[in-house]
Amino acid sequence: MSTSEKTPPPTDAPAIDAGRIVAKKRPGDLAFSGTALAAGVLILLTLTAVAVFLVIQSLPAFRADTSNNHILRGESFWPYVGPLIFGTIWSSVLALVLATPIAIGIALFISHYAPRGLATVLGYIIDLLAAVPSVVFGLWGALTFSGFLQPFYVWLGSTVGQVPVLNILFGGVVSPTGNTILTAALVLAVMILPVMTAICREVFLQTPKLHEEAALALGATRWEMITMAVLPFARGGMVSGMMLGLGRALGETMAVTMVLSGSHIVVFQLLTSANPTTIPANIALSFPESHDEGINTLIATGLVLFIVTFAVNAVARWIVNRRAEFSGAN
């Protein structure tokens, strides 16, 4: 055979197109990629269907004439939903502020301080707590936790509540039952703590060992190594955990409904009997007696909650993407 002649490549060899090698697609790869694509498309279709349903069913709530609406009772929609938005965001932000430092501390202890055996046991416990139903937390908060906190609330109101600036939060007549917005926020903080801790723990464990060893080799203490190597690397992951916990707190229904006796008011005081309520709790309490346009009004409040939650997730994604290059995650 002449040297100028070329032997044709076998049929199962990778195809060469303009200098680029294309790998052969096996049946398993095709099945996996197709399944992943179908799952992604299904999620988008489901989200779109939910959004369309909420928008269509909410339209009657925005009519000018609300005299026949037993929920709005002649007022417009936005004055009705405004206090609900405030109560939802206020209780969720309080829960996030209370849970974030505790979650980061527990995650750091599990990942960098606890012995291996203890860290494994604590990791299992955290994962199990994340699976506890919200109604259990609600019962605990309403029947046990609120009564336990009530004497502390009395002391807090008589001391901190007398400070001119802090009385905005801790002033007023203390609730005799302990069922306050602060109790609801504490219950929400306990609920979102396992999820936030699990995410932060996994992110801390992914810190490159070379970064940690380099900091220790330069004479840094363990805490200095954490502040210089672990926390900057895990910043995006910590924000993701915080936003995931905030998303669960925003949509929580049963725990807040069972703990809090709220009303349509805007108040910042944390210890009084007059408390704002949340959108999910209002829907749960008002839906059994609703009919006609009242149901549409409650669905419209659900649409507002959907938009708020979507905005929170979008902001979290933006923060994570902005911090990814700085943290070394890429």
Structural commentary:
- The chain has 330 residues and is an all-alpha fold.
- It has a single domain (30-327), classed as MetI-like fold (Orthogonal Bundle), CATH 1.10.3720.10.
- 68% of the residues lie in helices and 2% in strands.
- It contains twelve helices and two strands, in the order ββαααααααααααα.
- The chain has a two-stranded antiparallel ribbon with strand order 1-2.
- The longest helix has 37 residues, at 77-113.
- It is globular, with a radius of gyration of 27 Å.
- The model is unreliable at 326-330 (pLDDT under 50).
- This is Phosphate transport system permease protein.
- It comes from Microbacterium amylolyticum.
- Belongs to the binding-protein-dependent transport system permease family. CysTW subfamily.
- It is found in: Cell membrane.
- It is a multi-pass membrane protein.
